[in-house]
Amino acid sequence: MKDETRLIHTKAGRGPVNTVNPPIERGSTVLLPTRDVLYGDGKTYGRMGLTAQRELEQALKVLENAKHCRLATNGLQSCALAIGAVVKSGDHILISDSIYGPTRRFCTRRLTAMGVEMTRFSPLIGAEIKDLIQPNTHAIVLESPGSLTFDIMDTPAIAAIAKANGVITIFDNTWGVGVLHKPLDLGVDISVQALTKYPVGHADAMGGAVLTNSDSLAAQIATCSEDWGISLAPDDAYTALRGLRTLHTRLKQHEATAYTVAHWLQERPEVNQILHPGFASHPEHALWKRDFSGANGLFGVVLNETSERKLDAFLEAMKLFGMGFSWGGYESLLIPCCDQLNRLPSDRIQNRAGPLLRIHTGLESPQDLIDDLSESFDVMARTT
After folding, report:
1. Catalytic annotation, pick one of 3, 11, 45, 47
2. Choosing from 70, 91, 97, 100, which is the catalytic residue?
3. Most CB within 10 Å of its CB: which of 64, 171, 294, 320?
4. What's the pLDDT at 137?
């Protein structure tokens, strides 16, 4: 069966009542019949998850071609769990310079306080990452496309070098969402997702997931999750699972709208560069075509040089595009990103012409979104 079919038929651990959707069990204490069951590995306490959580895990394993799945309350927590489960004091990790900002903050602030050394590297490094591996290097943290800048990594090359040196690879697959990209199939050890984005799909819940095909890594992740008391609430698990049922259909619309809007923006005099890996002009387009099956609604735009006053006028004139963090919902979003950038001096984004914007195209009419941007550019032009 195709993934979109399997995602709709993932019933797991249901009781005698066969509803289409799983029950939401809002409970902490689970009453059990015997001592053996009380101390068993099943549904013994609400924090470990009940029916909705188990079924969500099953659906996510379908998405990522994974054997094991562990849930978290949000994307950052899932990244922290994946990393924290496999490193200890005295270890060294390598992190891509283009990973999600809060994940990098966790590595630089929290892990270093716990005695873990860290080195940032260019997302374009490919197999040359071998030169950065130290005797105590234990993990490499990847994300592709890169957060904010949409760089595409040569993930199979990095994964191969890592395996040859006994180093664990952790990949943030939030953009690829398991539909467009399957890092575990490319040799990655652990895949992570922020369910808050496309799986939930309606900007009304948060969640995270850590997935792997390794029994030993799954055991480490589970132990760390239990020690940190990580869990996903039943309502959030239900909401994410409901979103997964329509994920393939929604992604096609997000992708189509993003291409339409991005091609229109490419012709605007205010725009210097489109950061979309699906464009033939993207520097790593060939890698993207090799490793991804499609795109979603998220891409970047570099404007030509302009004043902050003009930029603010453009942003404040938007009516359909909202200015807010996150993405993946039905609503379109646009944010300026320069204040978030913290890249190595050699990163190509440092030589950009003007402001960097991140755009997420929702499920609105593409023409309405174009009209909104056009009117905002008009306001920008009139601002002195």
Report:
1. 47
2. 100
3. 171
4. 98
